[in-house]
# Entry
Amino acid sequence: MSPERYRDWLQQALWDLDHARLAVQEGHFEWAAFAAEQAAGKAIKALHIFLRGAVWGHDLTLLLEGLPDGRPVSKELVERAKALHKHYLNARYPTMFASGTPREHYTKTEAEKAIADAEALFEFARQGTAG
# Structure
C-alpha cells in the first residue's frame, strides 16, 4: 500500500470516532464501542502505513506492539488497546452473551470509556505521523 494513504486511514479513524460519539447520543452504546474500536484500529494501521510497514489483522494489541520501527508503546496504551479489542465481537453478536443482545449489555459508561481509549490511540498515531 502506498505510504501516502496513511492520511486516508487517519481521516476515516477520525470519522469513526465522530460516529461513536453520535451513537452515544442516540443510546446505541454497543455501536459506539464498536466504532471506537474501529477508529483505534484504523489509526494504528495509519501509523503502520506511514512507517512503511505491512499491516494485517484486527488485534489492536498486536498491531500496537508490532509497529515496524519498534517504537516504545506505553503500558497504558497497551491496556487501552486490550480493552478496546474486546468490543470487536462483543458489541456486534448476541452469541457473545449467554442471553440477550449486545444493546442490552452495553452501558453508556462502557461506550464513553471506549471512545476515550480510542482517542488516546488516535492521538498516539497522529503524533507518530506528524513527522
